[in-house]
Design goal:
Blueprint: E1 2-4, E2 10-11, E3 17-21, E4 32-35, E5 38-42, E6 46-51, H1 64-75, E7 81-95, E8 99-109, H2 111-124, E9 134-139, H3 151-157, E10 158-162
Antiparallel strand pairs: 1-7, 2-3, 3-6, 4-5, 5-9, 7-8, 7-10, 8-9
Length: 174
C-alpha cells in the first residue's frame, strides 16, 4: 500500500523531526487488538521519525532555523511515497522495575528518509545511522510506542516479524 504525503516533516513538541501521517491515509484499523496474549490499543497518531531529538538539535540555536528551511526546501524535491510493507514487527522493551512494554509497528519503504538523513549528514559533517523506517500502529502502555532509532535497536527489541494477516489485520486502502 502506497501513501503520498504533501507536507514535509516538522519538529514535534518532543524535539524530534516527524513525518506525520493522517489517520485517513492508513488502512482501517480497529481501536484495540488482541494478539499473542497482549491487549494493544491503537496509537492516537501516526508518523515516521526522520530525526530523533538529539539528531534534530542541528535545527535549534544559531543558524538552526535557516538550516531547517533549507532542509525542508530540499525535502520537497524528494520522493514523497511511503510504502507500507506486509511486515509487522512485534516490539518489546523491558524496563527494570516497570515491566515490559509492547508495540506493533509496520515496516515501510520511505526513500526520502534515507536521502534526507544523508543530506543532513553531508551538510553537518555528522554520521547519522540508518533508521529503520516504520510506523507504530498499536501500543500497550506508552502511547508513543517503542523507539527504534537504529538497526541494532530493531534487532534488540523485535521479538517477532509477521504479516498483517498473522496478527489478524488486513492492509486495505480506505
Amino acid at each position: 500500500m502506497i501513501i503520498r504525503l504533501e507536507s514535509p516533516p516538522d519538529i514535534a513538541e518532543t524535539g524530534a523531526v516527524l513525518w506525520k501521517i493522517p489517520a485517513h491515509l492508513m488502512p482501517p484499523l480497529p481501536g484495540t487488538l488482541s494478539a499473542r496474549d497482549i491487549e494493544f490499543r491503537l496509537k492516537p497518531e501516526f508518523h515516521l521519525t526522520v530525526f530523533g531529538r538529539a539528531e534534530a538539535m542541528v535545527f535549534v540555536g544559531a543558524g538552526g532555523a535557516v538550516r531547517l528551511t533549507q532542509w525542508r526546501d530540499a525535502w520537497r524535491q524528494l520522493d514523497d511515497r511511503i510504502e507500507l510493507l506486509d511486515e509487522l514487527w512485534l516490539l518489546r522493551k523491558q524496563d527494570p522495575g516497570a515491566g515490559a512494554d509492547h508495540a506493533l509497528a509496520v515496516a515501510c519503504r520511505a526513500p526520502a528518509i534515507s536521502v534526507g538523513r544523508r543530506l543532513l549528514s553531508t551538510w553537518t559533517g555528522s554520521d547519522l545511522q540508518e533508521r529503520p523506517p516504520h510506523i507504530t500502529i498499536f501500543c500497550v502502555n506508552d502511547p508513543h510506542g517503542i523507539a527504534i532509532a537504529s538497526r541494532d535497536a530493531l534487532l534488540e527489541r523485535c521479538v517477532e516479524r509477521g504479516s498483517w494477516g498473522s496478527f489478524g489485520l488486513a492492509m486495505k486502502q480506505r
